[in-house]
Amino acid sequence: MNAAVQPDAAEVRRMRESDLPGVVGVERRAYDFPWTLAVFRDCMRVGYGCWVLLADGRVTGHLVMSMVAGEAHVLNLCVDPDWHGSGYGRTLLETGLDHARRLGVETVFLEVRPSNTRAVDLYRRTGFCEVGVRPEYYPVRQGKREDALILALEIGSAGYDEEQE
């Protein structure tokens, strides 16, 4: 991580077509099974909430969320491994949660690998709670599969606590 750049020095904005090479590059550095360029293009085409985080003039993270009928789903939250621990994951997540709140979303869901302890910790610190498990959801090397934790966060007027942010 570049210790000289703090989260407040980053810019979060809507994802553009021109960002996609950088987004895919971050995916490839962060995940063994990254999303493809075509998947990101499809997400943008259908109108999902897609954001990038820029630091040092380059894409260092991204967030993709779907929102419909009072629910949102975090589909992809990724920060370049060089920037882990920077607070950028939380910055991206809060951007998505704020947007969802403005659209009247009441509950946000996501799946996460239990082995991704950094992400699990971020989600729990943000107030997400485990509501289920999807058995053998994620691919892993050697053809095995890993379960997904299903997490949820109530952000509607009855469930959202402003103190969490």
Descriptive account of the structure:
With 165 residues, this protein is of the alpha+beta class. The chain has a domain of 104 residues: Aminopeptidase (3-Layer(aba) Sandwich), CATH 3.40.630. It is 27% helix and 35% strand. The chain has 4 helices and 7 strands. A 7-stranded mixed β-sheet has the order 1-2-3-4-5-7-6, sandwiched between helices. Strand 2 and strand 3 form a beta hairpin. The longest helix has 15 residues. It is globular. The N terminus and C terminus are likely disordered.
Q: Topology of this structure?
A:
Blueprint: E1 11-14, H1 20-30, H2 37-45, E2 49-55, E3 58-68, E4 71-79, H3 88-102, E5 107-112, H4 117-126, E6 129-139, E7 145-154
Parallel strand pairs: 4-5
Antiparallel strand pairs: 1-2, 2-3, 3-4, 5-7, 6-7
Main beta-sheet strand count, sense and barrel state: 7 strands, mixed
CATH fold category name of one domain:
Aminopeptidase
Overall geometric form: globular
Distance between the termini: 24 Å
Oligomer: single chain
Proportion of strand residues? 35-45%
Structure summary:
This protein is of the alpha+beta class. 27% of the residues lie in helices and 35% in strands. The protein has a domain at 7-110: Aminopeptidase.
